[in-house]
């Protein structure tokens, strides 16, 4: 749903061979709609919960790779916004993303004679500057930005490139109502939506543009219907 569904629709306007959707909840109507948009593309669905152990993810990926032989791009897009659910927010927004990425390296890593691949991780503008009333959610998105930047720098070793797309506040069910950390601001959703936002379709259009640009290490900001490359300031370097 939301950004994910609209982005899938935009992708189907392109010259794809396959679109594989992994989600915890099956939505037959949405899958049927996607299949009808472009009958030339094979759209398939597999049930998947990103919070499962890496071994289970690897098993599922083996099934998918056996069927398709080649996968070019992995989009990590699962996310929740509820700072009452601290452990689950971290598990879905960050740990699941890391584990799914780690699992696909078994098939892509050039050190294992893999072909390489492309990781597109969905972050958030809160990964740059937090919505301080939801520090757990914002913290996971900052972690996604950092993790993805590291993947990009590891590309010469692994053959796998990576970048993030970081939407601004988008009018989806995710932001209609959500809990702040320790209820520090019960009206956080209402106050947030009082400011300018963007519709999911505008975000999805720029999302696909970012995928087509395919810039390793890019930090894309998708806000208010615009696509902008964010330049990250280096305040420290490990030197190795």
From TrEMBL:
Q: Which GO terms describe its molecular function?
A: alcohol dehydrogenase (NAD+) activity
Keyword terms of this UniProt record: NAD, Oxidoreductase
Quaternary structure, per UniProt, is: Homodimer.
Q: What is stated as this protein's family in its record?
A: Belongs to the short-chain dehydrogenases/reductases (SDR) family.
Instruction: List, alphabetically, the PANTHER family matched.
Output: ALCOHOL DEHYDROGENASE
Pfam families (UniProt xref): adh_short (PF00106)
> What does the entry list under GO cellular component?
cytosol
Say yes or no: keyword Heme present: no
BP-aspect Gene Ontology terms: alcohol metabolic process
Please write the reaction equations for the catalytic activity of this protein.
a primary alcohol + NAD(+) = an aldehyde + NADH + H(+); a secondary alcohol + NAD(+) = a ketone + NADH + H(+)
Q: What is this protein called?
A: Alcohol dehydrogenase
On the tree of life, the source organism's domain of life is: Eukaryota
Q: Top-level EC class, please?
A: oxidoreductase
Q: What is its EC number?
A: 1.1.1.1
Q: Which gene encodes it?
A: jgw
């Amino acid at each position: 749903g939301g950004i994910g569904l609209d982005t899938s629709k935009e992708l189907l306007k392109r010259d794809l061979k396959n679109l594989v959707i992994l989600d915890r909840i099956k939505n037959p109507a949405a899958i049927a709609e996607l299949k009808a948009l472009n009958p030339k593309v094979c759209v398939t669905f597999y049930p998947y919960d990103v919070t499962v152990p890496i071994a289970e993810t690897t098993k599922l990926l083996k099934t998918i790779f056996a069927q398709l032989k080649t996968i070019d791009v992995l989009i990590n897009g699962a996310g929740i916004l509820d700072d009452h659910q601290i452990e689950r927010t971290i598990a879905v927004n960050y740990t699941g993303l890391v584990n799914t990425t780690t699992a696909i390296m078994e098939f892509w890593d050039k050190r294992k004679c893999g072909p390489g691949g492309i990781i597109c991780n969905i972050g958030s503008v809160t990964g740059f500057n937090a919505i301080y009333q939801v520090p757990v959610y914002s913290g996971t998105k900052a972690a996604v930005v950092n993790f993805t930047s590291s993947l990009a720098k590891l590309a010469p070793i692994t053959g796998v490139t990576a970048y993030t797309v970081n939407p601004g506040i988008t009018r989806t069910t995710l932001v209609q109502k959500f809990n702040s950390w320790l209820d520090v601001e019960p009206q956080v959703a209402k106050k947030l939506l009082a400011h300018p936002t963007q519709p999911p379709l505008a975000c999805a259009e720029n999302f696909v543009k970012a995928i087509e640009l395919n810039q390793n290490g890019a930090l894309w900001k998708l806000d208010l219907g615009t696509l902008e490359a964010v330049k990250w300031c280096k305040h420290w370097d490990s030197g190795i």
